[in-house]
Please model this.
Amino acid sequence: MATLKVSNLSKNFGSTQVLRQINLEVSDGEFLVLLGPSGCGKSTLLNIIAGLETLDDGEISIDDYVVNKMEPKDRNIAMVFQSYALYPAMTVRDNITFGLKQRKVSKEQTEKSLNHFSKMLKVDQLLERKPAQLSGGQRQRVAMGRALVRDPKIFLFDEPLSNLDAKLRVDMRAEIKKLHHRLGTTIIYVTHDQIEAMTLGNRIAVMKEGDIVQLGTPREVYSEPVNRYVAEFIGSPSMNFIPVTVEARSGKKVLTLTPKGQSSVEVPAPNFLNGHEGREVTLGLRPEQITNLPQWKDAIDVHSIKIEVEVTEPTGPDTLVFTEINGASVISRCHPENMPEDGAVMSLSLSMSNGVFFNPDNGERFQ
Amino acid sequence: MQAADPQLQALERSTSHKRTFYRWLLFLILGVFGIYYLTPMYVMIITSLKSMEEIRQGNLMTLPKEIIFDAWKIAWSGRGYDAGDVFLRPFFWNSTKMVIPAVFLSTFLGALNGYALTKWRFKGDNMVFLLFLFGCFIPYQAILLPMARTLGMLGISNSITGLVVVHTVYGLSFTTLFFRNYYVSISDEIIKSARIDGAGFFKIFFKVLLPISSPIIVVTVIWQFTNIWNDFLFGSSFSFGEAAPIQVALNNMVLTSTSVKQYNVDMAAAFIAGFPTLIVYILAGKYFIRGLTAGSVKG
Model:
């Protein structure tokens, strides 16, 4: 049970700054996800928290105690790695209990913890095997067992699911979430997979080039992204970005949307765009906000629009329709039944109430 | 099914004839080279089993009329009189006493170096490795004099201990190179994991890394054993008389005999001197090949 505080943390590799003035607070029992593309510094941050890398500036405290100069083993943390990092020459039993032996935990206590956690992770039948004789999923369980058995204050996960195949990844994801609910420990989890971040985290820190761009709940980063980078990174398929011009029409602000080869539709512009008349802004709409699904029927600020179907992609639960609005290619999420042929015209409803607007110059969101 | 096209049948026949021909040609060439390489050993063995009389009269290649082991006995334990009788037994043990600690020390230190250079990176570690690499290319002749001075100052010249030190120092470049290249392919995350688990520098080395190093240990041991056992230059420069290793003794035995050349004894002695490396290679040869390529492919 622990809290973690990172303040003004910076790190350089030679002349490149990989982490810039990072500030982060993780409360007791929280599941925080560090999300970003490779090279954004998320793994370095995790390694610094673990004590495996040094920091150049700033402070890290666990339970209000500054641990900057503490060895990894004394920080009372446990880490699960992408490559599992099991000790190849040891059996599963020795792998799991290695940390306890280093800490001179009594034999009975070791045996008790081993039994408890190997049963919980369903590796109790594999204790005498070597890592090479295990499947990827089993190895990952053993790696988690090795972390759990020490009962650390904070768990650090470094892309633990990246080496698993798609189905196993979904299963293990759910198991990690259940584990967190059951044990209630503080977890910091690094991933580049936005779905993992959305499904697992209490909060997500979206990182870019050594900065935390946005820190918020999954809902916040999804529907209220602070800039175009976050909006683009979260959600699959990605958000649609449509260039529109704010126009003043008989005392009101309107935006004109012109689907390729179809007649234009005028929609009212939100109030925060006042003062931007005549200017081009970027409208961000999620694929599910341009749809023929029935959910928008009674919603406010919904507009009907006719589009030409370029191509369709059935995904199963719904079908993605590709088209073009204002010269930008747009993906819409539609009901899979009664899909028109490619090239046909179909009518969709477009929900502007959840639309977001970005400054095309710097990508910041208007609000 | 229709009868096959006669043209196709002819083509098939000629292809199969060609294949048989090339196969036989291949084996013929391999056989010729095999014989070429094995002939010296064949001559050595049969000559060592002949009497001097037979050697003088007969042909180099003919099998002995009668197999006699006298030459082997003389080469190993001498003729039984004191003055000027050089035989290999004491020098064989000299070499053994030199080669075992030297191989062990150079392999162990090389492993430790490789571990530190790959898993505990420090400022300038690549420079240090480059200097080690440089050591691989220094010709041994160039360091004979300074080394002789050093051994003299340490008070271990003309002793087995001195030779152990020389071979350990000059083996380090190669053993470090071997282990460094092997450990580079082992995931750093394993080391990180062990550090978090609470293991220190040596604990990680002995408990985590050494147990998975057997392929490269075998390579290093064979390499070092062969080099040190077969070394003549250091042996002849830094030792003489009773402290000499077997290769030096072999040289003395063959060159210093005043009477008629005892070819059978010379051959037997040369064979004895080369025997241990042959055994090591036969026993561990397959690991040698495996270990040489182990670092190159991950997983």
Q: What stands out?
A: Residues 89-294 of chain B form a domain with the MetI-like fold fold (CATH 1.10.3720.10). Residues 295-299 of chain B have pLDDT under 50 and may be disordered.
